[in-house]
């Protein structure tokens, strides 16, 4: 009885709210007709990318060419009506309108007929690409300042009627005559790019290795429809920006290793001066960058050792190794009980005779340096804006249209079952562990608690972290010459992902249809050169770390992947070579992309089949109820 009453109360509350929004019967009709028909349009295109690792030029190009979709549409619309060169030049105009127009002007080729011709082509392309959207959505994509004229252009039908033909000609002539051709070309290219990608998913790792993660984020922040799944490099930077000292030391170390200090110094206004001055003082024989790397590496190991000791639940004890160094000889004892020779036995910031606990203490000077860095990191407004954006648009995982997106792994046991993780006296596994990890990562942002800041470091490199799933061998890689110690054992997930059974269990665990969903991961570079494929378990899982990262090109053999999900299925694009804007402008070169169909459905998916479709369906039900309430007099519509 109570249930019935509360439900009734709730329903009428919803209806009253709806009535405020749709006060007349006509308003309800209008919305119902719009929503009902929208459900039948083809589903919008989703693009997935991951592991961008600061490679701005490639990302910029792929964002501009919409992962190759523009080129395909141009081929489709203009077929043999244009030569290959004309099509390539037209594509370059769409990718880089400002630069291309400047070039045409400089070469005195930007004549009125050039403007008219290209505006005509852009219009034709935009019309074709807009067919899968309702008109109101298309007008939402048009840059405001040009909206009324572009809407007018989009509504012309020159093929149908002579008067329309003349009308269109007049519109285009006037645009060019009054010198607004360049502005309209640019506005059309914005519209076309918005029509080409309905949603962009970035499956983690913006930072480290490449030198412009800041520029990538600036660009992305202008994109109208993005979601992000955090990678381990992202959580590391997020932790650093929020003030975790060990995350800061690691970020600085990574930047020095890849000679990317510009990101910190210019991009985020973080000065490394005190560190480099100190480092060249204590390592006078080293080059400045190398000296700074050595100095921050030891600080990092000290801070990491302290963190591991105060967080036994991280299960990272095997990574606390600084005290295993015999400072009098040049050896360290590792977990296997064996002694390994160190690359260098010179540790000017460690007192040889100190106790085990003291090894992990920072010297006064080190303390001063890390505090100084900390204030730079936490006070950088640009970094703060980027991290806020990562928190606002990002999650540890996303379920979208039946697919499961996350960067690393779901921790598994050796036998492939979900691994139970004990943390603060509670047990977690599978999705529950992801939810807990995300909650703790958000605590770092919202409250900056020490425990949550420590957790960000665990997420970066913990063996049980969903973004990592690997036992990092940073100590061995930094200090020990014997490379056999460098191999990083990883979670059984990375083996089991090859099996259909595992993928299906994971999908089910996250509430998705195991027979129809896909797992989409990044994190593990696919070594195409060695014959590896990004497609696992008959297409149930796809790993799209295609190595945008230049440092890994030798290993991967390609320069990035984009996964595309459209109304007919899934397609993978393998981008063959690095983009270069100048080259694109000079010779109209595009990134060469090889396309592989992973799944082709016999029928088109519609908006009705998507998550958004389900939300719309609910709204339709509410609208019908409102209509009923208006009809049976429960609510009075406005006249
Ligand atoms: O998430 P990614 O890109 O695999 O990066 C993490 C990896 O990078 C490393 O820190 C190694 O870095 P380097 O390539 O600079 O030696 C590994 O220890 C770790 O597995
Ligand atoms: Mn990663």
Automatic annotation (TrEMBL):
RNA-binding in keyword set: no
Keywords: Carbohydrate metabolism, Hydrolase, Manganese
E.C. designation(s): 3.1.3.11
Cofactor(s) needed: Mn(2+)
Pfam families tied to this protein: FBPase_2
Catalytic activity from the UniProt record: beta-D-fructose 1,6-bisphosphate + H2O = beta-D-fructose 6-phosphate + phosphate
Cross-referenced SUPFAM superfamilies: Metallo-dependent phosphatases
Keyword Hydrolase tagged: yes
Record pathway: Carbohydrate biosynthesis; gluconeogenesis
Gene giving rise to this polypeptide: fbp
GO molecular function terms noted in the UniProt entry: fructose 1,6-bisphosphate 1-phosphatase activity
Protein name (database record): Fructose-1,6-bisphosphatase class 3
Protein family per UniProt: Belongs to the FBPase class 3 family.
InterPro entries: FBPtase_class3, Metallo-depent_PP-like
Top-level taxon in the UniProt lineage: Bacteria
Example GO BP: gluconeogenesis
């Amino acid at each position: 009885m109570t249930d019935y009453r509360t439900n009734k109360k709730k329903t009428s509350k919803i209806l009253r709210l709806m009535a405020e929004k749709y006060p007349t019967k006509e308003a309800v009709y209008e919305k119902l007709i719009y929503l009902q028909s929208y459900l039948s349009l083809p589903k919008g295109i989703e693009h997935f990318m991951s592991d961008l690792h600061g490679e701005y030029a490639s990302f910029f190009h792929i964002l501009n060419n919409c992962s190759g979709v523009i080129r395909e549409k141009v081929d489709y619309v203009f077929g043999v009506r244009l030569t290959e060169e004309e099509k390539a030049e037209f594509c370059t105009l769409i990718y880089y309108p400002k630069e291309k127009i400047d070039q045409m002007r400089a070469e005195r080729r930007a004549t009125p007929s050039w403007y008219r011709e290209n505006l005509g082509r852009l219009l034709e392309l935009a019309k074709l690409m807009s067919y899968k959207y309702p008109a109101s959505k298309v007008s939402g994509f048009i840059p405001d300042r040009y909206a009324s004229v572009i809407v007018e252009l989009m509504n012309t039908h020159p093929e149908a009627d002579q008067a329309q033909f003349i009308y269109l000609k007049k519109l285009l002539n006037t645009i060019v005559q009054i010198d607004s051709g360049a502005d309209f070309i640019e506005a059309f290219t914005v519209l076309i790019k918005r029509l080409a990608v309905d949603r962009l998913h970035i499956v983690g790792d913006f930072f480290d290795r490449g030198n412009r993660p800041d520029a990538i984020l600036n660009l992305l922040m202008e994109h109208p429809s993005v979601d992000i799944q955090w990678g381990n490099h992202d959580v590391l930077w997020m932790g650093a920006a929020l003030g975790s000292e060990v995350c800061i030391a690691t970020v600085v170390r990574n930047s020095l290793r890849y000679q990317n200090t510009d990101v910190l110094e210019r991009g985020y206004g973080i000065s490394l001066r005190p560190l480099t001055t100190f480092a060249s003082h204590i390592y006078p024989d080293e080059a400045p960058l190398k000296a700074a790397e050595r100095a921050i590496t030891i600080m990092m190991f000290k801070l990491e050792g302290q963190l591991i000791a105060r967080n036994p639940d991280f299960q990272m004890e095997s990574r606390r190794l600084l005290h295993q160094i015999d400072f009098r000889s040049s050896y360290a004892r590792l977990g296997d009980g064996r002694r390994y020779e160190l690359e260098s036995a010179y540790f000017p910031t460690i007192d040889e005779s100190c106790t085990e606990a003291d090894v992990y203490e920072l010297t006064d000077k080190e303390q001063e340096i890390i505090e100084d860095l900390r204030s730079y990191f936490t006070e950088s407004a640009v970094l703060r804006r980027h991290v806020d954006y990562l928190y606002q648009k990002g999650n540890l995982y996303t379920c979208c249209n039946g697919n499961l997106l996350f960067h690393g792994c779901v921790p598994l046991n050796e036998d492939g079952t979900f691994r139970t993780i004990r943390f603060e006296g509670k047990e977690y596994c599978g999705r529950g562990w992801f939810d807990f990890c995300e909650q703790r990562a958000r605590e770092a942002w919202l409250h900056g608690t020490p425990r949550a800041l420590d957790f960000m470091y665990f997420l970066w490199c913990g063996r049980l972290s969903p973004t990592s799933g690997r036992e990092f061998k940073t100590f061995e890689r930094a200090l020990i010459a014997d490379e056999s110690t460098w191999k990083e054992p990883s979670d059984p997930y990375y083996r089991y992902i090859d099996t259909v059974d595992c993928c299906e269990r994971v999908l089910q665990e996250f509430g998705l249809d195991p027979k129809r969903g896909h797992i989409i991961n990044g994190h593990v570079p696919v070594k195409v050169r060695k014959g590896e494929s990004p497609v696992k378990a008959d297409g149930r899982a796809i790993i799209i770390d295609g190595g945008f990262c230049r440092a890994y090109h030798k290993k991967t053999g390609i320069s990035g992947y984009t996964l595309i999900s459209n109304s007919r299925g899934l397609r993978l694009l393998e981008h063959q070579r690095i983009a270069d804007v100048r080259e694109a402008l000079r010779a109209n070169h595009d990134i060469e992309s090889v396309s592989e169909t992973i799944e082709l459905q016999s029928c088109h998916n519609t908006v009705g089949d998507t998550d958004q479709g389900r939300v719309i369906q609910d709204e339709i039900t509410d609208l019908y109820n409102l209509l009923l309430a208006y009809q049976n007099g429960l609510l009075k519509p406005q006249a």
